[in-house]
Automatic annotation (TrEMBL):
Belongs to the 5'(3')-deoxyribonucleotidase family. It comes from Salvelinus namaycush (Lake trout). Residues 346-357 have a biased composition (Basic and acidic residues). The keyword ATP-binding does not apply. InterPro entries: HAD-like_sf, HAD-SF_hydro_IG_5-nucl, HAD_sf. This is 5'-nucleotidase domain-containing protein 1. Keywords: Acetylation, Hydrolase, Magnesium, Metal-binding. The keyword Flavoprotein does not apply.
Length: 448
């Protein structure tokens, strides 16, 4: 059985969409909160700062890149790099970030920090950095107050009624010209989904997007008949809360014209399209549909916080993480020898950013380095060592395997045996079709 999370055919980062998200947040701050208009002005080079896996420390305006043990590998104040001695001044000689244990064990949101782990909100990391720069330029104190304005900007653009009401800037722009922001997925992925359904697998789509926005996206990227691909569709799932245990779990609700019924369902007794919900009730339905006491679920996702960690920890599901950063480090998106389409896609996507002078979000950053591995030294004169990043370590811990895109596996037989991450095997084992360059170099140097 397969669980189709948003990432099984998710929209990759796209320059127009990236820019729209940034502008949607920023225009709110400028027009409603009296922030400087200069925030709206970006150069193509500015996008190098956008790097998945950053944590913004809301108490001091620093953004940090963490090692697997919570060591601060790199840091900025706003968008400006902190030198090694400045990092030690902030975080001590061991460079320990004080909130690491909280983030590492629960992934929950906090009033003290925010973790950027998916492309949909990633432009917010650049905005945070530039807002801190603006506050410093004004001579204002940098504290967590600025984050309240950022959250207000997010809510203004993304709240569940914004799509229907044409509120904010994000949804009206996408509705007006979806082809500018949404890229249809490949025929190989559609064929893959159909082949699983034909083989008797139960397919699910679980997304935190509201039903109206989900419909727009799927109509454009999967085609008007996309609902036929899935047995169960769950929108406004409010992940990771979807995986909460009693008593926090939310009931499923039916939808009428994209409006949730006020009365929650006591259980889930048949396939269909639902809103909100929880995995224990879904699990019971899957038992009924499959006739198995413990149905096997494979869950595809692209967010550690919303997908991998809760699905693995609470749902006990097999998890496949879509890690586009693998593409940025030499891993092919798919077997280019099989189709001309597969051959063209990666270069086309890369070109869209390069044509505008922008770094593709999945590529290594000049300012932040590799998503998987980074150099570390404790202080002046200390020998440099290579450390796994916290994001890389989390992939190995909470994912069954990692792939750069669904295209990379769509042409394989459904019974193909994939390598899995395993504690007693090298951490490079679970990457398909191969590990990213930085990980290969790290482990090759260790064995030489």
């Amino acid at each position: 059985m397969i669980e189709g999370g948003r990432a099984s055919f998710k929209q990759e980062a796209h320059p127009a969409k990236h820019t729209l998200i940034y502008e949607s947040f920023t225009r709110y701050l400028v027009e409603h909160k009296d922030y400087d208009k200069d925030l709206l002005i970006l150069t193509p080079a500015s996008w190098d700062f956008c790097f998945k896996g950053l944590v913004v420390d809301l108490e001091d305006g620093n953004l940090v890149k963490l090692a697997e043990d919570g060591t601060v590998l790199r840091a900025t104040h706003g968008t400006n790099n902190l030198r090694t001695e400045e990092i030690i001044k902030h975080y001590g000689s061991k460079r320990e970030w004080k909130n690491f244990n909280s983030l590492n064990t629960s992934f929950t949101k906090s009033t003290k920090y925010y973790f950027y782990d998916n492309y949909f909100d990633l432009p917010g990391a650049l905005l945070c950095g530039r807002v801190v720069d603006m506050l410093r330029k004004r001579g204002n104190e940098v504290n967590s107050d600025f984050w309240k304005d950022i959250v207000a900007a997010i809510d203004h653009n993304y709240n569940t009624s914004a799509f229907k009401e044409d509120a904010g800037w994000y949804f009206p722009s996408v509705k007006r010209d979806p082809g500018r922001y949404l890229q249809p997925c490949s025929e190989s992925v559609k064929t893959w989904l159909r082949s699983m359904k034909s083989a008797g697998k139960v397919l699910l789509l679980i997304t935190s997007s509201h039903s109206d926005y989900c419909r727009l996206i799927c109509d454009h990227i999967l085609g008007k008949d996309w609902e036929e691909l899935f047995d169960i569709i769950i929108t406004n799932a409010l992940k990771p809360g979807f995986f909460s245990l009693v008593p926090q779990q939310r009931p499923f609700r039916t939808l009428v014209n994209d409006v949730e019924e006020s009365e929650g369902l006591p259980s889930l007794d048949k396939p269909g399209w639902y809103s909100q919900g929880n995995w224990p009730h879904l699990h019971q339905l899957l038992k009924t549909m499959t006739g198995k006491p413990e149905p096997k679920v494979v869950y595809f996702g692209d967010s550690m916080r919303s997908d991998m960690f809760p699905a693995s920890t609470f749902g006990k599901w097999e998890t496949v993480m879509i890690v586009e950063e693998m593409e940025g480090e030499g891993v092919p998106r798919c077997d280019a020898a099989k189709t001309n389409e597969a051959q063209a896609e990666p270069q086309d996507k890369k070109g869209k950013f390069e044509d505008q002078g922008m770094k593709a979000p999945s590529a290594p950053s000049e300012q932040w380095g590799s998503y998987f591995v980074d150099a570390h030294k404790s202080g002046e004169g200390d020998e440099e060592s290579q450390k796994l990043t916290w994001c890389c370590h989390s992939i190995h811990k909470y994912s069954t395997m990692a792939i750069p895109s669904v295209e990379s596996i769509a042409d394989l037989p459904l019974d193909y045996k994939f390598p899995r991450f395993c504690p007693n095997k090298p951490c490079t084992t679970g990457y398909y079709p191969r590990p990213p360059d930085s990980l290969l170099k790290k482990f090759q140097s260790q064995s030489s």
